[in-house]
Write a structure and sequence with these properties.
The complex is a heterodimer of chains A (298) and B (236).
Chain A (H helix, E strand, L loop, with lengths): L2 H32 L6 H19 L4 H24 L7 H23 L4 E2 L9 E4 L2 E4 H23 L1 H11 L1 H6 L4 H26 L2 E2 L5 H14 L4 H21 L9 H13 L14
Antiparallel strand pairs in A: 1-4, 2-3
Helix pairs in contact in A: 1-5, 1-8, 1-9, 1-10, 2-3, 2-4, 2-8, 2-9, 3-8, 5-6, 5-8, 6-8, 9-10, 9-11
Chain B lengths: L1 E10 L2 E11 L4 E6 L5 H9 L6 E6 L2 E2 L5 H7 L1 E4 L11 H8 L6 H14 L1 H5 L10 H13 L5 E5 L7 H16 L3 E6 L2 H7 L2 E6 L2 E7 H6 L1 H8 L4
Parallel strand pairs in B: 3-8, 3-9, 6-7, 7-8
Antiparallel strand pairs in B: 1-2, 1-4, 4-5, 9-10
The chains are: A mainly alpha (298), B alpha/beta (236).
Chain lengths: 298, 236
C-alpha cells in the first residue's frame, strides 16, 4: 500500500469515526440519564436525513444552508417528542417496559418512514461545497471528509462546555446520579431528561446529514446499522461516558476502514468488525474502555 | 408557619402515617423523634411532595402544599437535607452548592450566601474543586446542609444529619444547626439521636408506628419518663 492510499484510508476512517462518535454520544447521554438504550436513536438519525433531503428538495440546492439547520431543529423537537410519547409515561415503570417501548417506537418510526417516504432509495443532494476534490500532494480527498471531523470537533467542544460549565449542564449531571436529590434542588427532572433527548437528537441530526453527504443514499432502514454500530461504540467506550462514546466511535470507524484497507479479503465482514469488537471488549473489560466500576461511599 | 393536619400516607398496604398533626412555628427548632420505621422520613417526604399522601393537609403560611410539585415547594422556601446526604458525587463541592441555588436568579445574593456557607463550613472552602463523592461522610453532610442553605430556605428540614458520623462531628453538626437557628432559620429536625435533638429543640414530637404519641417542649420531653425509657436509654 502506498503512502497516498494509506492517507486516504486514514482520512476516511477519521471521518467515519467522527460520524459514529456523534451518534454514539446520543446513546450514551440518554443511557447516562435514564439507564435506557434508546433504540429509536438510529431512526431519529434517519428522520433527520430525510427531513434534510425534503428540505433541499423544497427550497432548492442553493438554500441548503437553511434546509440543513431547519432539519436539525426539527430533529431536536422530534427527539423530545419521542421521549414525551414513548418514555415519559413509563417513568415509574420497570425498566423492561421502557426497553420494550423503545423497541416499539423504533419499529413504528421505521415503518411510518416506509409508508411516508417510500421504500425506494433516494439520492441525497450534495451541495457543491461538500463535493470538491481537494489535492494535498498526491492525496486527493473529497471536501466532506474534512468537514466531518471539523464539525464534529466543534460540536464536541460545545457539548463539553455545555455539560461542564453551564448550570443546566450541571443539573444534567446531577439528574444522571440522583433524580430525587435533583428534585430537592428545584430541578425539573422531566425537563432535563427531555433536553438530553433533544441534544442527543441534534448530534444525531448533524451526523445524519453528514452521513447523507458522504454516503448519499437514503432508505428508511438506513438508521439500523449505524444505530447498532454506534450503540456498540458507546458500549465499547463505556456507556454513560461521553469521552468513551467518542473513543469508541473512532475505534470503530478507523478499525472498519483499516480492516478493509489492509485485509481486502475480509471486505465482506466489514459490518462484523463492530460485533467482534463488542464481544472482545465485553470479555476483557465489561464496563467498557473508559467505564469505571461504580463505588458507593457511605 | 408550617401546619400539618391529619396527614395520612399509605405505602402499598401499609398505613405508614395515621393522621399526624404538627406545627412548626417561625424561628423555632422543632424535632421529630422516633424509632426506625416510625414514619419520620415519610413525614418529611410528604411535606416535600416526594411521597404521595392519601389524606390530610400541609399548609405553609396558610397555603396548601399538598398538590404542588417538589420544585414549587422548594421555590416557596421549604428545603430538605435528605437522609444519607445525597450529595451529587460526580460534581465538585462548588457545583453542588451552585445547584443548591438552582432556582435563584440573584447572582449577588448567591455569591453572598456562598460566602456565608463557607463561613459556616470552612472545610468546604478548602475543597471547592474536589468531587463530592471523594469526601468523608462528615464533609458530605456539611456539603448537604450547605447545599440546602444555598436555596435560601425559610424552613430547613434535616433528616438524620448525625447518622453515621463520629461523635465529634455530630457535635459540630449540632453546633451548626444552633448557629443557623440563631441567625433566624426555622428548622424541622429528624433525629435518632433523641437526646441531642431535644436539647436544642424548642418543641418536640414523638412518633410511633405512624402516629404522634407525645409532644411537648424540648426540655419537658427530655425529662419525660416515657421518652427517657424508650429513646434516651440509660446513657447519659
Amino acid at each position: 500500500m502506498t503512502f497516498q492510499v494509506f492517507m486516504q484510508h486514514l482520512a476516511n476512517g477519521i471521518s467515519l469515526g467522527s460520524l459514529y462518535a456523534l451518534i454514539a454520544i446520543g446513546y450514551t447521554m440518554v443511557y447516562g440519564i435514564l439507564r435506557l438504550i434508546n433504540f429509536a436513536h438510529g431512526d431519529i438519525f434517519m428522520i433527520a436525513t430525510y427531513v434534510a433531503f425534503y428540505g433541499v428538495m423544497l427550497l432548492g440546492m442553493q438554500l441548503w444552508w437553511i434546509a440543513f439547520p431547519a432539519a436539525i431543529i426539527f430533529t431536536y423537537f422530534f427527539g423530545r417528542l419521542v421521549e414525551r410519547a414513548a418514555y415519559r409515561p413509563l417513568r415509574n415503570s420497570p425498566r423492561i417496559s421502557v426497553l420494550i417501548s423503545a423497541i416499539g417506537v423504533s419499529f413504528l418510526i421505521e415503518n411510518l418512514a416506509i409508508v411516508i417516504f417510500g421504500g425506494r432509495p433516494k439520492a441525497f443532494p450534495i451541495p457543491p461545497i461538500f463535493n470538491k476534490i481537494i489535492q494535498i500532494g498526491d492525496v486527493s480527498i473529497v471536501s466532506i471528509t474534512f468537514f466531518i471531523p471539523a464539525i464534529t470537533l466543534a460540536l464536541l467542544v460545545g457539548l463539553v462546555y455545555f455539560i461542564n460549565q453551564t448550570k443546566t449542564g450541571m443539573a444534567m449531571r446531577a439528574v444522571s446520579k440522583d433524580y430525587e436529590a435533583a428534585r430537592l434542588m428545584a430541578i425539573d427532572v422531566d425537563k432535563i431528561i427531555s433536553l438530553t433527548f433533544g441534544i442527543g437528537s441534534i448530534l444525531a441530526a448533524v451526523g445524519g446529514i453528514m452521513w447523507g453527504l458522504k454516503f448519499p443514499q437514503l432508505v428508511p432502514l438506513m438508521g439500523l446499522m449505524p444505530g447498532l454500530k454506534c450503540f456498540i461504540a458507546a458500549v465499547v467506550g463505556g456507556i454513560g461516558d461521553i469521552r468513551g462514546a467518542v473513543l469508541g466511535g473512532f475505534i470503530l470507524g478507523l478499525g472498519e476502514i483499516m480492516l478493509v484497507a489492509f485485509l481486502p479479503a475480509l471486505t465482506g465482514y466489514r459490518d462484523a468488525f463492530a460485533f467482534v469488537l463488542l464481544i472482545v471488549i465485553l470479555l476483557i473489560k465489561p464496563t467498557g474502555l473508559m467505564g469505571q466500576k461504580l463505588t458507593e461511599k457511605v | 408557619m408550617l401546619t400539618i393536619r391529619n396527614l395520612n400516607v399509605h405505602y402499598g398496604g401499609i398505613h405508614a402515617l395515621r393522621g399526624i398533626d404538627m406545627d412548626i412555628p417561625e424561628n423555632k427548632i422543632v424535632t421529630l423523634i422516633g424509632a426506625n420505621g416510625a414514619g419520620k422520613s415519610t413525614t418529611l417526604r410528604s411535606i416535600m411532595g416526594l411521597t404521595k399522601i392519601s389524606g390530610g393537609s400541609i399548609q405553609y403560611n396558610g397555603e396548601e402544599l399538598t398538590m404542588h410539585k417538589t420544585k414549587d415547594i422548594v421555590e416557596k422556601g421549604i428545603v430538605l437535607v435528605p437522609e444519607g446526604r445525597r450529595v451529587f458525587p460526580n460534581l465538585t463541592v462548588e457545583e453542588n452548592l451552585i445547584l443548591g441555588a438552582y432556582s435563584r436568579k440573584d447572582k449577588e445574593g448567591i455569591k453572598k450566601d456562598m460566602d456565608w456557607v463557607y463561613g459556616l463550613f470552612p472545610r468546604l472552602k478548602e475543597r471547592l474543586w474536589q468531587k463530592a463523592g471523594t469526601m468523608s461522610g462528615g464533609e458530605q453532610q456539611m456539603l448537604a446542609v450547605g447545599r440546602g442553605l444555598m436555596s435560601k430556605p425559610k424552613i430547613l428540614m434535616m433528616d438524620e444529619p448525625s447518622l453515621g458520623l463520629a461523635p465529634l462531628l455530630v457535635k459540630e453538626i449540632f453546633n451548626i444547626i444552633k448557629e443557623i437557628h440563631r441567625q433566624g432559620m426555622t428548622i424541622l429536625l429528624i433525629e435518632q439521636n433523641a437526646k441531642a435533638a431535644l436539647e436544642i429543640a424548642d418543641y418536640g414530637y414523638v412518633l410511633e408506628t405512624g402516629a404522634i404519641v407525645l409532644e411537648g417542649k424540648g426540655k419537658d420531653l427530655l425529662t419525660n419518663d416515657e421518652v427517657k425509657n424508650a429513646y434516651l436509654g440509660d446513657a447519659k
